[in-house]
Specification:
With 871 residues, this protein is of the alpha+beta class. It contains 20 helices and 38 strands. The strands form nine sheets. Strands 2, 3, 4, 6, 7, 11, 13, 15 and 16 form a nine-stranded mixed sheet that branches. Helix 15 packs across helix 18 and helix 17 packs antiparallel against helix 18.
Amino acid sequence: MTHLLRRAAAVLLFALPALASAAHRVGPEPAFVVADPLPPTSAAALGKDGTRYLVASDQVDTTGAHPVRYRHVSYIVEAARGLAEAGRFSIAYQPDYQVVTLHRVDVVRGGVAHDRLGAIQVQDLRREQDLESAILDGEHTLDITIPDVQVGDRVDYSYSIEGANPVFGDAYFASFIAAYSDPVGLRRVRATWPAARPLHWRVGRPGMQVRSGMVGDAHFVDASATGVPRVREEDGAPSGFDPYGRIELGTAGDWADIVRWALPLYAARFEDRAVAARMREALRLDGEDREAVLARAIAFVQGEIRYTALDMGENSHAPNRPETTLVRRFGDCKDKAVLLLALLAEAGIQAEPVLVDTSAGAYLARRMPSALAFDHVVVRASTGGREYWIDATRDREQGPLAARDPLPFALGLPVCADCKALVPIPDPVPATPRVAATERIDVAKTADGYVAAFGVITDYRGLRAAQTRDTFEDEGAEEMGRRYLRYMRGFYDGIDVVGLPEADPPGAAGDLRTRERYRLGWKRSEAHVLGIVLFQLLDFVPRLEQGGRESPLGLSGPRLATHVVRVSIPMGWSIAPEHEEVRTDQFSLRRDVRVVDGLLEVRAEWRRFADEIPAAQHAQAREALSRARDLLEYDVDLESSPIAGALAQPRAWAWPALAWLVALAVVGLAWRLRARSRLAGMLFRPSATMAAILEAPAQPERVWLLLLGMAACEAAITLVPDQAGKGAIGAWLAAGLGTPALVLRLVLYTAILGWTLRLLRVPRPDFDRMLASTAWGGAPAMLLFSLLGILALRGRLGLLADGHVASPGEAPAVVAAGALVFAGSVWGLLNALNAHAVAARSTRGRIIAAWALIVLVAALLVGAFVWLARH
């Protein structure tokens, strides 16, 4: 309240001391003023600095040649701490078109009013609060000091400001705060206007009484409220949210009236045709590639025309001619927009200016139509059937037009002949993350603890890339390293930086990649848990306090961002894969945890769908945001074991148990059918069954079918797992191509076995009989137990891939499948031994000797090849 009622915060450039300065005059209160009733002291609660504000009244009259705004303020000083500010107030005005008149400055002491108007000290100060942003608006401030103010006094002053910015012509616009950060006994806004020029109003705060009617031949509206409580701004509210409320006045009936006012100001064409021709040639504005032409025009205005705003007088809203901006090589948003529009007009590209507010966002739709509702100008261009939204004040953007960051203003008012209303400004979730952090943590054991090496690579795109690059260039790597280290120590106590951060040269699209390295060591007695923090996303997920909320909560951060952490430890992992997601209408956060190629991977993705969370959803939002923050921290016990992890997950044993139960059932059934079924007989009576098969008429089709089945099972167990990561089609294609080769290997094995048996003085074995023994001997056990192993895996053959480290949830299936396949291989080997002996009319000893000889020769051949390869 103090700064809103008495003193505007400002950067003071010039101080021009003067008693009775020429910047103001002294005179009676205007005739249109209706006296404000003084409320009782009890109507106003005590303010923060010990001051009790009784009256804050604004009255406006637009019936004369120039509008006049009158202000009356009354307050009681009830504490010494309020004296410093209580004896001063300030008045902001534009000397180019406004005149300030002081009406009264009274100090009421002991019920007696003392006129201080002749004793005040007046300083006419030039202030430029946006000077550092290269904006000069020419506003002045009358800083008025009242002598002899004591605790217990009531200060009562009034003044008026006559005049309005001529850029508005006959139109009038005004906006007043309805409440303050201090309580006030009476808040009042009154306006008077002639019948010939209607005035519209909107009262944006509930509880205010509004009266309207006639005073003579003029209209009036009077909005007032008593006992207005202080307004408390809540942290995290979006910039466009206004907790104070607003009383708006204006002559515009709708947004089309604002467009009609703005159209003459934005006649964006080069009047100097020689300048136009020069720019057409320099920027190749007649090129056939219209998007390339548009990109060149944008690059010129963004990169060659620096931003400086001289917003004095009419230039507060009226842009300069494009020729003027070209000569100066500087301009504000209006000037740069008009220059871009002039260039696009020469190129034949349709475009128009769009008025926006940089902080209002979607709240602009709640404002009354007014030229004061906007503080920025952008451009909407159309070519090739697509719309492009351009902010000419941005640093030069790179990359394809469609991939550039959207404008964050939500709504805008296009200025064109057919434009009549606010339009939405597209701001979709991008296809690629605006921020993507990739982190690698390598953990090693030491004699008494652990040491972790951190490497962080962050990719920035669009505006975030430009902003981060500017910061690197302005601050330098050393200062950025200190900043990053302070930030990281907020998550990892005792972490140290390794070298300075690096920023790669910008990519073709202006993207930026930064690199950081850290080291953290700790003792086992301190902790045996590694805390993984996805800090990049944690910045975008606010922590909400308990209790209710009156204002919405603003959501910051990019529309899409990711953070991936990959961790390696020499002990391996016993971690089950996880997928968790928190999703609301405003945001989603997804986290996936898995082990990939021996590395623990924690991947999270943040998507923001809205700019704010409504106050009514505060409780749900607090719970959702809390869960989201929990997902961004993941603890790993470095002392845990895979067995303990597996035992802790009973559900992981369901399919392996089912496979073993099926195995018992099938084996039991085969035992009962061993005398009637050849397949069952080969499991329990291999010699007798093989003899019966060989005595029966030959059935070569069954032999080849069994060989094909054996080869297919082996391909599924050995070839598919390593190809599973490349997709199902690739995996099964590998199995399909590998199966015939495995069949040929079985045939070759049979031939080699026959030759070896002849070397061992076994009478010439019949190849067909030996091939039948290969098929019937190995197939039944191998087929049965391979299929049971696949059942235990629930078809997830990728778990058997080389290099795959099974998590606790996967370990039971992998162990069960391995045991079943091993059991089938041993059983099949024993059956084949008996079947081969029968087929060769030999003994099992000779078969074993043949196998040993084959293995020995194979080992010698492999050794010879290895020796030759090395030498």
